[in-house]
Amino acid sequence: MTSTGAGNAAASVDLPAGFACHAGNVGMKDESDDVMVLAADRVSAAAGVFTKSLFAASSVRLSQINVADGQAQAVVVVSKNANVATGEQGERDTANLAQRVAELVGCAPDQVLVGSTGVIGVPYPEGAVDKYFDRLAEEPSQALNSRDATAAATAIMTTDTHPKTASATVPSGGGEATVVGIAKGSGMIEPDMATMISVITTDAEIAPDRLDVVLRRVCDVTFNALSVDTDTSTNDMVVMLANGAAGAVDEAELESALGAVSLDLTRQLAFDGEGAETLIVVTANGARDDAQAKRVAKAIVNSPLVKTAVHGRDPNWGRVAMAIGKCSDETDIDPDRVRIRFGDQEVYPTLATPEALAELEAYLASDEVLISVDLGIQTSDVGGSFTVYGCDLTDQYVRINADYTT
To answer: What is the pLDDT at residue 7?
Structure first.
């Protein structure tokens, strides 16, 4: 397997064979693209993982229904409007959007997955969707004539500072299959799903039931290991389509490629957290099991005091100890057996010298800060382990969200 991340936001990434996309302005944003349609050239295996929010958007509920049979042919995402808490009108608008995309693509409405992201409680502008798709209907072949995944990723951004794409390849019966993912998300990010939408495509062949298993397994250690601010969105989803154009692949190889793409996107999402300046990666090991390791790691990455310490380059490792200590239900954690490290530097139980604290302060100025915790319950090579991804907390985060609708 080979993979290519999209750290360079300007890089162009093509969709896999048999996929095409369209990006344009439907009227949610003033000028920039705010709608993305992505379609396969055939009905494809499909799977999805969705938010568990009690206020889940009508787009989420419709997509859950449409993907339940493991098939889909198109995905549409509207940005800058979540279409949540908009009553019966919102339900009709979601269904109408699926219908108009189906007409454009030439598939059934129940083969369209719908995403929407942005402000809650605001209906779509009256008539905007129909007016836009009426224009596209005049030249449907021109509407879906691009394979530019970067343009598709740009159209779904809200407070993101750049489009997020990633790709990987895997050997197939037809030579080589490709996995390409796009994602958006910057704030209101915490599982379940994390605030984000991701659309992943592949020309590999895989049965729908196996695609569902593989996607969920990968999401557990990537997108659902992501947190910016502990807030779960109403619209989160990760959906994947596999059209089989490149032929059969080894499932383990495909899962590895999907994992590489998903991890790349996860890291991009964390690093682009609203106002963020530092990517924080926290690994807990030596735990009783992976679930315990995840709880401890999430307690650390979600701590506002840890986040602000990293942002301020304050070598106050005691905040990590505090965050571990909050996990009071984990009664088998013994502070005397815990080890805490920042990068390669052990900070507990080793007593920090002034020189060591100066080194730690310099390390905290890095673009990426790794915090690792060995709980000492099991040996680190056999005990539970989990890695989570987040970012620092800055005054810009407060400003962005204080002014979000104004």
So the answer is: 45
Domain stop point among 217, 238, 268? 268
pTM of the predicted model as reported, rounded to 2 decimal places: 0.90
Q: Are 274 and 227 in contact (CB under 8 A)?
A: no
What CATH code is carried by the domain that includes residue 99?
3.60.70.12
Which residues, at least 6 apart from 316, have a Cβ–Cβ distance to it below 8 Å?
309
240 with 374, same domain: the answer is no
Q: What is the pLDDT of residues 184-213, one digit of tens each?
A: 976 444 555 555 899 999 999 999 999 999
Query: Between the CA atoms of 320, 219, 252 and 68, what dihedral angle is there, to the nearest 10 degrees?
Result: 160
Q: Which domain covers residue 344, as residue numbers? A: 279-402
Q: Which of 158, 169, 195, 394 is catalytic?
A: 195
Residues 160-181 as b/e (b if ≥16 CB within 10 A, e otherwise) read: bebbbbbbbbbbbebeebbbbb
| Residues 39, 129 within the same domain | yes
- Count up the domains in the chain and report the number: 2
Q: Active-site residue 379, yes or no? A: no
Domain end call among 212, 235, 268: 268
Buried/exposed 286-313: b ≥16 CB within 10 Å, e otherwise: bbeebebbbebbbbbbbbeebbbbbbeb
Per-residue pLDDT for 144 more than 50? yes
